[in-house]
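Summary of Year 1 activities. Much of the first year was spent building the evaluation harness for sequence design. The harness presents a backbone, in tokenized form, and records the residue chosen at every position. We chose the following record to illustrate the format because it has been used consistently in internal testing since the harness was completed.
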């Protein structure tokens, strides 16, 4: 008895769903959309084929251990100079900090004038001047 009730309710549900689908298909905007979709099927097929090929290619690269190893090696090789420079800058900054903390020397006016003539100080001042000019120009552009 319960099987008969279940089958009857399934048939009724299917009939209701079919009627809803037919009601939707009778709407002019749905018919227009379906017509457009059917007209564009060749293009859609082409796009799906390209996407499938792209996915297969990416999947192949993702599963290729040699490619992954080469990519890691290439990135490591490119980053090595950057890491080396960053380590050098950090080491220099730490050493300068340590020296400054150990020194109790007072820098007077003549010491400051002597520092102004130092080539590294001049390089720093030119950099600071250029940086400030660029920041000023960008600030003017934003206004």
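For this record, the design step produced the sequence shown next.
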């Amino acid at each position: 008895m319960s099987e008969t009730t279940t089958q009857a309710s399934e048939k009724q549900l299917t009939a209701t769903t079919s009627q809803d689908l037919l009601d939707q298909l009778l709407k002019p905007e749905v018919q227009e959309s379906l017509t457009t979709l059917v007209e564009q099927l060749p293009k859609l097929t082409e796009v799906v084929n390209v996407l499938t090929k792209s996915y297969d290619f990416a999947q192949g690269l993702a599963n290729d251990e040699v490619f992954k190893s080469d990519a890691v090696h290439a990135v490591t090789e490119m980053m090595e100079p950057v890491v080396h420079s960053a380590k050098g800058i950090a080491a220099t900054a730490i050493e300068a900090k340590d020296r400054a903390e150990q020194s109790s020397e007072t820098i007077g006016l003549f010491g400051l004038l002597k520092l102004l003539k130092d080539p590294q100080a001049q390089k720093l001042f030119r950099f600071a001047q250029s940086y400030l000019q660029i920041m000023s120009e960008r600030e003017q552009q934003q206004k």
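The CA atoms of residues 12 and 18 lie 10 Å apart. Quantitative recovery figures across the full test set are reported in Table 2.
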